[in-house]
From TrEMBL:
Protein name per UniProt: Helix-turn-helix transcriptional regulator
Ranges where the HTH cro/C1-type domain occurs: 4-58
UniProt lineage: Bacteria, Pseudomonadati, Bacteroidota, Flavobacteriia, Flavobacteriales
Residue ranges the record marks as coiled coil: none
Top-level taxon in the UniProt lineage: Bacteria
Classification via Pfam families: HTH_3
């Protein structure tokens, strides 16, 4: 799970803005934001850079991890 949608909203940015700056289609970025697809590690770092945050801030904690 990722927090792309939350970070975009917090910064007042749109998925269209992110798509343009990533060189990806709106549909791809929307799939990332809706957690239907997960970006590659490289894309995650690029998104974090554009949002001026650490990549780890885009990752949602999963408290249901099996031990």
């Amino acid at each position: 799970m990722n927090r792309i949608k939350e970070e975009l909203e917090k910064k007042g940015l749109t998925q269209t803005w992110l798509a343009k700056n990533l060189g990806k289609s709106y549909n791809m970025v929307n799939a990332y934001a809706q957690n239907r697809r997960q970006p590659s590690i490289e894309q995650l770092y690029e998104i974090a850079s554009l949002l001026k945050i650490e990549a780890k801030e885009l990752l949602a904690e999963n408290n249901n991890v099996l031990n």
